[in-house]
Amino acid sequence: MSSIPSSFDPAQPVLHHVTCPGASQTDAATHRMAYWAWGDPTNERILVCVHGLSRQGRDFDTLARSLSSHYYVVCPDVVGRGESDWLADPKGYQVFGYVADMVALLQHLRAQRQASAPLDIDWVGTSMGGLIGLALSTLPPEASGGRLRKFVLNDVGPRLHHDALVRIGEYLGVPRRFSTEQEAADYLWSISPGFGPHTPQQWLELSRPLLRPAPDGQGLALHYDPAIAEPFRAVSADSTASGEAALWQIYDALRCQVLLLRGQDSDLLDPETAHDMTQRGPKARLIQFPGVGHAPTLIAPDQVAAVHDFLLA
After folding, report:
1. Amino acid 8: pLDDT
2. Residues 148-167, mean pLDDT to the nearest whole number
3. Residue whose C-alpha is closest to residue 12's, from 54, 56, 102, 75
4. What SS3 class is residue 14?
5. What is the mean pLDDT of the segment spanning 156-161?
6. Domains, the chain, with CATH or none
């Protein structure tokens, strides 16, 4: 059985890996998912933070560092991103495949603690990470290994604007090569205005983990598998609309406390959907951030404070 390391540096994350089942018949029998962990690994309070479509777990450094004295904070690199393996079959880059990996992660944490009961977990999900959390909530706690206690949905809900998905698909997976970190950061800023205002240093720190040496050693490339774009681009307006009813059903069935964060200028989560989420199901508490679109990066003090106040209340 896995054991929990006894020492840690609360100011820095520790990189771990968990073995996950193959996503399809054409993939390897297993793949590895990386996760960054902050805080005391023996802490019974666990916070899982899951990133957006083309991002990675280090997006949560500011939030995780600030909460590491209260939680064991776990920030996975969803498969195909960051330090996680790439899949041989792009069809595996789907939400329910990612849910299977999160189940492997929770069962791994449960085994480390030698816990007989499912773990009580809190969840922060940005965009895709929120959809993964919603899908995970449909599983019985014994099957998933965890029971949602508090859930932060960051700029995502059951109704998604297809135009925003098209916008994201225009740059997702396009091969890019950069000579310097600053050149890469400038490009990432050009496609990420919705993230809201950041200092140059903040943006460089957010961008740096998204880069890796190019395969031929000449310059830098983005640190995700370009093939994650294939299933994403197959999403149509009709399939987005048809999935909406299922997502509302999942949302309405939530039995945990929910905080909904929204960039006031978001093109993915509209004001009407956000309002509806406060009126039905778990009746989320809504906080909106002016001057921000899709999606808040949880670096600005007011954004971090909103998550703190909700999780630690």
Report:
1. 64
2. 95
3. 75
4. strand
5. 95
6. 14-173+224-312 (3.40.50.1820)
Tell me, what's the pLDDT at 5? 53
For residue 211, the surrounding DSSP H or E stretch is strand 211-213
Does the pLDDT at position 302 exceed 60?
A: yes
State the pairing for strand pair 220-222/211-213: antiparallel
The answer for residues whose C-beta is within 8 angstroms of residue 154's C-beta and 6 or more apart is: 124, 125, 126, 127, 129, 130, 261, 295, 296, 298
* Consecutive H or E run containing 50: strand 46-50
Single-letter amino acid code for the residue at 262 = R
Tell me which H or E stretch contains 306.
helix 301-312
Going by their DSSP bridges, the two strands 72-77 and 30-38 should be labelled as antiparallel
In angstroms, the CA 273 to CA 268 distance is 10
Taking residues 7-17, what's their average pLDDT?
83
The CA R_g of the chain, rounded to the nearest whole Å, is 18
For tokens 């000449």, name the residue: 218
CB contact burial 55-77 (16+ within 10 A = b; e otherwise): bbbbbbbbbbbbbbebbbbbbbb
Q: Which of 103, 47, 102, 51 is nearest to 72 (CA)?
A: 47
Whether a cis peptide bond, with omega within 30° of 0, leads into 241 is no
Q: How confident is the model at residue 27 (pLDDT cuts 50, 70, 90)?
A: low
Nearest to 149 by CA among 18, 37, 48: 48
Q: Are 44 and 114 in contact (CB under 8 A)?
A: no
